[in-house]
Amino acid sequence: MGKVRVVVDSTSDIPANVRAELGIEMVSLKVLFGEETYMDAVTISSEQFYEKLAVSPVMPTTSQPTPSEFQEAYERVLEQDPGASIIVITLSGAVSGTYQSALIGKSMLEEEADITVIDSKSASYGAGMRAVAAARMAAEGRSKADILAEIARMSTDTELFFLVDTLEYLQKGGRIGRASALIGSILNIKPILSLDKEGTVYSVDKQRGTKKAMARILEMLDQAFGNDPVNVTIAWTHGDAIAMELCEQVKSRFNVQSVDFTTIGAVVGVHVGPGTSAVFMSRV
Length: 284
Description:
alpha/beta, Hypothetical Protein Tm841, Chain: A,domain 3, 11 helices, globular
């Protein structure tokens, strides 16, 4: 049985030390500040991005990897582990062409290779959580079939919510109108975002103030998981105070088996802005 390797794109927001430990290969999306181009999680870190965002006169944009960049990633993996089976988990195809690039990159390989490309229909650690679980199973010597089955199970047994601090970046990104953003800011409206089954970002709810928004997230997680054993990852963009409060409430309320932490990277950060916190919860 050949070795199984996992490939992700940079929006999975898997910490670099975890990627290194588990042999997860990463393909970067790009962040553009005007004429300046950065490779997400390679030439710009999360911390550097949010520092630059705070002072930049231009709104950054993002772009997907090319098929050639995925092809090169597959070739690196196969050079390291000849004959390996590769599982690729990408950002939702509903919000990015990254999934299509990964598929085309597979078709560009000169030699036949066992590569399965999965549209996570998720974002940030929603995809990352599955990739890490897959890589850990691979390290244990589990079969590709078993790993794919677990990824599929997690796809239906994971919930994620982003608590957005400001409406400014949703407005700049064209997701809400200027008038709605202005009124929402005056009323201290805190949107709660998630992704639907098709992988499209949507506003689950809106609450006045952070505490009410946090309480609503906990209520929705309780409806989904009750007292079932769960694994949790807490993430944030810039400043972790709210994320840590959310973490403490989650640990006190749910049957938590493990808690991990990560930062929301530059590409997702372009769209949600600083001050965003997120919780990713998966049934064990």
